[in-house]
């Protein structure tokens, strides 16, 4: 068995070595840079016997407009002509740029799984291009990548936007027939795969409402528990994303087509919105005791939080008798569990950071409030 595996590995290595080199004159590639991680360039010479090539850095026209220029590295001062040692790169090749047939950059893909050359540099430049266009969301198959725009984008979370995703991914009342409703529902409800090209034909661009809509559909159609994992670095926007998702899940019923019981729709929406409102109103309390200022984020969560929204799903047979092809899925309650609190921050913090907000809030409270907590208040504070 081991000899067979070794033989297969050698065959793959031999096949790779015999493959023609893609590092030819004029090829558009990315090269590493100490300031910008990766920058676009064009190969200006064939590899020599020491596996070195000369490249010319070629910045996009909008480089300075949509790039935070590194200290001491203004675009005009970046070394444009470089000699690159291919031995410093995997497989002795520079990562290729994604270009259309006419040589124009193929970045800005809605789904990065559609990129011909998928690697770190391609992912970063695709996200950068979409960010500059005001599109913070990008798919990678079933995963939704969000880049914090650090500004409010008008219309991104409007009622019309909520209704659009609910209508196309749940209620299926859109016209045009790009895909049969039953086929789309079956695929999306099971969440076996991203719909990719069919999404493009329906005009469904990447959005966090896509994630919440498919989760709701899985609850209603499959009666199966759904999990949405929100992860990222400090300041990436995790807390805001959770709020957006919960609000959408609470208001999905309000977008149900009017032909399917207005009474149920209104009562369910009001109850769901009230439940989410209570969850969101508890956030300041969690943040007071669990959030603190760090070097990267003034309101960084220093604990983990698991929020469970609990739904009552209508019986499928009853829904069919009532003329509803999607059963009612009402938000009935919620549960929140906290864990992994950074307790050491109470007694020790790094320079430039602070302990938990609650201590500063108590010190900044009116004297009457302090006296309610301490018999003599905080004398001298």
Descriptive account of the structure:
The chain has 381 residues and is α+β, with helices and mostly antiparallel strands. The chain is 36% helix and 15% strand. The chain contains eleven helices and ten strands. It has a four-stranded antiparallel sheet, with no helix packed on it. A hairpin with a 2-residue loop joins strand 5 and strand 6 (143-146). Helix 7 (238-251) packs antiparallel against helix 8 (262-290). The longest helix has 29 residues, at 262-290. The chain is flat. It starts with a helix and ends in an 8-residue tail after the last helix. Residues 173-183 and 185-194 have low confidence and may be disordered.
Give the helix proportion (percent range).
25-40%
Number of DSSP-assigned strands? 10
Number of helices: 11
Question: What is the SS-derived class?
Answer: alpha+beta
Going across the biggest sheet, name each strand in turn: 1-2-3-4
- The residue-averaged pLDDT reads 81
| Distance between the amino and carboxyl termini | 75 Å
Please tell me how large the radius of gyration is.
Answer: 27 Å
Largest sheet, in brief, is: 4 strands, antiparallel
Strand proportion? 5-15%
List SSEs in N-to-C order.
HEEEEHEEHHHHHHEEEHEHH
How would the global form be characterised?
Answer: flat
Extract low-pLDDT stretches.
173-183, 185-194
């Amino acid at each position: 068995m081991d000899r067979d595996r070794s033989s297969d590995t050698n065959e793959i290595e031999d096949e790779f070595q015999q493959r023609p080199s893609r590092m030819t004159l004029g090829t558009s590639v990315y090269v590493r840079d100490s300031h910008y991680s990766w920058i676009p360039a064009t190969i200006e010479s064939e590899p020599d016997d020491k596996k070195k090539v000369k490249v010319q850095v070629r910045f996009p026209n909008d480089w300075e407009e949509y790039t935070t220029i590194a200290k001491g590295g203004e675009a005009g001062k970046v070394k444009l002509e470089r000699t690159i040692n291919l031995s410093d790169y995997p497989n002795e090749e520079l990562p290729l740029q994604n270009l259309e047939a006419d040589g124009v950059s193929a970045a800005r893909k809605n789904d990065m799984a559609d990129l011909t050359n998928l690697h770190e540099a391609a992912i970063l430049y695709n996200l950068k291009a979409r960010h500059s266009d005001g599109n913070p969301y990008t798919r990678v198959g079933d995963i939704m990548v969000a880049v914090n725009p650090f500004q409010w984008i008008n219309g991104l979370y409007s009622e019309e936007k909520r209704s659009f995703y609910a209508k196309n991914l749940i209620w299926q009342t859109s016209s045009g027939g790009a895909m049969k409703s039953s086929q789309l529902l079956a695929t999306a409800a099971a969440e076996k795969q991203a719909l990719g090209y069919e999404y493009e034909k329906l005009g469904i661009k990447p959005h966090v409402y896509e994630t919440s809509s498919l989760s709701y559909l899985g609850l209603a159609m499959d009666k199966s528990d759904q999990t949405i994992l929100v992860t990222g670095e400090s300041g990436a926007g995790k807390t805001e994303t959770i709020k957006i998702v919960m609000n959408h899940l609470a208001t999905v019923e309000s977008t149900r087509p009017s032909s399917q019981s207005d009474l149920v729709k209104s009562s369910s929406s009001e109850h769901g919105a009230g439940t989410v409102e209570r969850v969101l109103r508890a956030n300041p309390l969690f943040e007071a005791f669990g959030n603190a200022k760090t070097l990267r984020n003034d309101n960084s969560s220093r604990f983990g939080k698991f929020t469970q929204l609990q739904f009552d799903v209508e019986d499928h047979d009853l829904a069919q008798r009532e003329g509803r092809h999607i059963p009612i899925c009402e938000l009935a309650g919620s549960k929140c569990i906290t864990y992994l609190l950074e307790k050491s921050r109470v007694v020790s913090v790094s320079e430039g950071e602070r302990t938990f907000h609650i201590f500063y809030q108590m010190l900044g409270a009116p004297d009457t409030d302090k006296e309610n907590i301490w018999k003599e208040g905080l004398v001298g504070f």
